[in-house]
């Protein structure tokens, strides 16, 4: 038993390290996008200012923001450093999947599940996202490991640890609260309800009560999710492709065929118990959160987003590994099926790490790369609006505040830190036009040029309509020209442009 435990730990450490390294590859390339800038905007504030904003919005991300504040204090807020915690969390989650697979079946099942987890496009996406989605997957899988350990040992200390990690998981990402009924069903299906039911109930209630202040505050801030679209006829595709296989439809097809074969084929006698163990744990883990979010979206208000269910990816990986073992008996066959999944995930892995891979092709980092060597102390800067940007082009400066050090921000109104908002106020051009005579150089950050209307579909089931846009048609351009400025330099990016005006 001791030898088996040692081997299990070694496997988990190996996959954790491998997963972290693979997940971190290319994370420095994509430009920051809107959601990630929310992380930077809040986490780079003082602790008092951070607490102020959490009292108004985004309390559901509070633990993540606080953690990232200290992380940024140590390692800075570059694209790589901001995403590294997510890459590390993917590795930690993969190690947990290995342990869980070995406890549910065998060493081979655990290792295979860990590899499948690292191949899932939703997981490779979460590794390049400076948000709490990858950490939520890590929390979910280790919470489930603790459930199995506590059920097996029955010792109070393990139930206490389970309660503590449950509370931590819910505080980290609110929707992991759905694991409570999922775990209840798993305990019942595994036949542990009679012997461990009361112990589990006590631990679950303790964990939930500990996290309840955040849950209540999150409901008080429910209005901030009003942008989420209602469920419609696109739901099957959201579930089938975007939820776990975002950007990789052929991977989704292959995985669906694999799961179908794994269900249809009668596995070997030694594999059948493993499949049952996986299904009793993984199926509730997948279905219960989907039903809860979907049901709430139908009867109350929309909260269902594909990325919010990232914490169910370990369960998907376990089922995928069990299916591979059911349909591929020989080692070479297992290697062949796994190799095919590797090939199918490569295109999405590469695409997720391209320069403008995030929603709408947001290019905040790219703009900063361009102007970093061109902005000079004393230059005036103005930020316009954009059809694709929920806030304003001021988020360019949020991406890398140091780029704009020494410049004169004419349009800055009330600051987010003081007001407890996510974003600084951007004053309209008319309110700052009178200050233009004090400037010799003005940099204007604007929406990109579009000769025709563009429509962009997001996996969040949103259509963004971008009307035609010419900067020369705008009041801002006319105002700058009337103030005696002429266009000296202009650079188009993907969805933005930077324009330098001089007298």
Automatic annotation (TrEMBL):
Which controlled-vocabulary keywords does the entry list? Answer: Cell membrane, Glycosyltransferase, Membrane, Transferase, Transmembrane, Transmembrane helix
Superkingdom of origin organism: Bacteria
Indicate how the chain sits in the lipid bilayer: Multi-pass membrane protein
Where is this protein primarily located? Answer: membrane
> Where would you find the membrane-spanning parts of this chain?
12-32, 84-102, 109-127, 133-151, 158-186, 244-265, 277-296, 308-326
Q: What is its EC number?
A: 2.4.-.-
GO MF terms held by the record: glycosyltransferase activity
Q: Which residue range or ranges hold the Glycosyltransferase RgtA/B/C/D-like domain? A: 70-215
The broad enzyme category this protein falls into is transferase
Location relative to the cell: Cell membrane
Q: What protein name applies here?
A: Glycosyltransferase family 39 protein
